[in-house]
Amino acid sequence: MHAENFTSETRFVLLGLSSHQNQCIVLFVVFLTMYLLTVLGNLLIIILLNIDAQLHTPMYFFLSHLAILDIAYVTSSVPQTIAHLLAGNGVLSSIGCILQGGTALSLGSTECLLLGVMAYDRYLAICSPLRYASAMNRKCQHLLAISCWIIGFLVSMFNVICIFRHSFCGPNLINHFFCELHFLLDLTCDDVKRTKDILNGLSAFVVLVPFSVILCSYSCILHSIFQMQSVARRYKVFSTCGSHLAVVIVFYGTIISIYIILQSHLSPDRNKKVAVMYLVVTPLLNPIIYTLRNKNIHRAVIKVLKRRNFEEKP
Question: Where is the G-protein coupled receptors family 1 profile domain (predicted)?
């Protein structure tokens, strides 16, 4: 069944996170709660960044794109996982598997690239403040953000084409809770060694190139910080970059561990736990990290609350 005669009649069965009913109920409640908190937290950031004119800066422009990404990222997989936990089984058509896995891969690749862009933005703001406004103008912001989305989509499409040109004639069981495209290669009846090498190389490129940009940017930022004489200014720079660095460590730590370092050594159960980290936990942590440490967002929240209280007074 090659790409030209591949039909939607093929079904893939997801084994999920647990086969025990009581555990499924607990996981259903946990995943539903985390999903709702993730959507609400990121929506709050998007609303605040749009209504407060003081937050209309490049850093917060990219942060709004990150919040949109996180909402879309969890929505691409978590609602389906919740439905499967409730139903007690996880069956997806080939089209559903392509849509779920392709969307998740596209958004995950976009987030990798966007975090690299955000690090470059912080590098320009701290290390080249005099040319920051011209280097990161409105046109450049939109160009960088759109490029991340387009490249992420192209990476996903390339993976889909490479995977679904193979024949699927063996078992259709996937030991995962969502349809991650790379796991489908284990279900083919063709020689997939070359395809795996190509896709692994592409994954390494998408993950390691922006990660290298992040490392270089923060190396320059640290060098600039150590040259600062003012303790207050050092603290301000640390507080500005700390939130982004925390998000990078959590997201890239899990992504690199599963796709670059330990891909062939993780057991299926460990693999699923790592996937929960970058698919569910990280999008939930992002708004928490940025709101807890960001004084500008604190001021925006207070401003909105004061305005609302003023409007409610007779």
Answer: 41-290
- Given a contact cutoff of 8 angstroms between Cβ atoms, the answer to whether 202 and 158 are in contact is yes
- Give the model confidence (pLDDT) of 11-61 as tens digits: 788 877 777 778 888 889 999 999 999 999 899 889 888 887 777 889 889
Q: Write down how long the chain is.
A: 314
Mean pLDDT lowest for which of 40-49, 134-143, 204-213, 281-290? 281-290
What total of structural domains would you count in the chain?
1
Q: Which domain holds residue 93?
A: 12-312
Question: Shortest CA distance to 296 belongs to which of 56, 98, 95, 126?
Answer: 56
Residue 269 burial (10 A CB sphere; 0-12, 13-18, 19+): exposed
For the chain, the straight-line distance linking the first and the last C-alpha, in angstroms and rounded, comes to 70
H/E element, 254: helix 231-256
- Name 279's Cβ contacts closer than 8 Å, sequence gap at least 6: 73, 74, 77, 78, 104, 178
Contacts of 134 (CB under 8 A, 6+ apart): none
Phi, psi of 92 (to 5 degrees): -125, 140
Separation CA 134–CA 138 (nearest Å)? 9
4 within some domain: no
Task: Tell me the CATH number at 234.
Answer: 1.20.1070.10
Element (H, E) at 174: strand 173-174
